[in-house]
Amino acid sequence: MSETVLKVEGVTKVYTLGKRNVHALSNLNLQVKKGEFVAIMGPSGSGKTTLLNILGCIDKPTSGKVILDNVGVADLPEAELYKIRRNKIGFVFQSFNLLPYLNARENVELPMENNGKSKNERQSKAKELLAMVGLSGREEHRPQRLSAGEQQRVAIARALANDPAIILADEPTGNLDNKNKQEIVKLLANLNLTQGTTIILVTHDGQVASRTERILFLSDGKITREKNGLHLANKLMCPNCGNKLPTTEAKCPNCGSISNIKEPSNSLFEEEVAED
Ligand SMILES: Nc1ncnc2c1ncn2[C@@H]1O[C@H](COP(=O)(O)OP(=O)(O)OP(=O)(O)O)[C@@H](O)[C@H]1O
Ligand SMILES: [Mg+2]
Question: Which of 18-22, 55-59, 171-175, 245-249 is predicted least confidently?
């Protein structure tokens, strides 16, 4: 069995607006395994961003437990949450959120400041990550000299800078045209498959959601149903014993048989998942 990287138990979030209470999340439960690629869909106002902010330790739940990489984070003081955000979580936003006066490499290096690595190590890690997202040769370009799709690639490289336990992406393709949308989703699927990166992404787009391996539907602050996505077909199943293999390993830990790691299929977006 794969290890659980994220466990959410009975999480409730109530915002107070004047005299009115807004129940953004209601007794929500969720488990995500290491190496999973999960989408969260749901109508506007259903609590998707609230959930992602709580998972990302940007916000705290009103009640309930959040266990990230075996650490209970719901009650931690801000100084501890800051360290967890920096070391365990990679954020990707709809609007990229790159610093305009820094080039691509410097944007990727930024979260690595004070992580104990030398300047040289930080630079070479940033270059390595930019190469991984297909941006070799663009390291010195500032965001305004990069296309929207390229800017989101830089943001994904930045999210990976401190080898996080989990990537949280809120509408990562929301500001992209169709071609860039497909490329970014393929990049995320590839990272998940080849690096074993655990990814949770929020999207309104059924095509994007269908490319993950598990789609959760949120309604009124609760997960009301879930569905398998197409990416599941890219995951290795041991041909011998049927066990789902960790993506970074070619040898089945269950029966020892050897397999090849698959590339995600190119037949993207065959199936669209409708929102509730
Ligand atoms: N800081 C806040 N103060 C008060 N109410 C809030 C706050 N943030 C969110 N809400 C409310 O909580 C509910 C859930 O909001 P949330 O932003 O999580 O929805 P969402 O599913 O991300 O929506 P969208 O698809 O439009 O991004 C909404 O009713 C929203 O108005
Ligand atoms: Mg939102």
Answer: 245-249
Range of lowest pLDDT (120-124, 162-166, 259-263): 259-263
Ligand 1 contacts CB of residue 22 (under 6 A): yes
Q: Give 170's strand partners.
A: 93, 202
Distance 86 CA to ligand 2 centre (A): 22
* CATH superfamily assigned to domain 4-234: P-loop containing nucleotide triphosphate hydrolases (3.40.50.300)
Q: Is 50 in the pocket of ligand 1 (CB under 6 A)?
A: yes
Average of per-residue pLDDT across 176-192: 93
CA–centroid distance, 184 to ligand 1, in Å, is 25
The per-residue pLDDT for range 148-167, each reduced to its tens digit, is 999 999 999 999 999 999 99
Instruction: Establish whether residue 219 lines the binding site of ligand 1, counting it when its CB lies within 6 angstroms of any ligand atom.
Output: no
Q: Where are the domains of the chain?
A: 4-234
**Residue 45 alpha carbon to ligand 1 centre in Å:** 5
> Which residue of 26, 28, 48, 200 sits with most ligand 1 atoms within 8 Å of its CB, as the best mutation to test the pocket?
48
In one-letter notation, the amino acid at residue 151 is Q
Average pLDDT of 181-194? 91
Ligand 2 mean position, distance from CA 51 (Å): 9
Please state whether the predicted TM-score (pTM) of the whole model is above 0.85.
yes
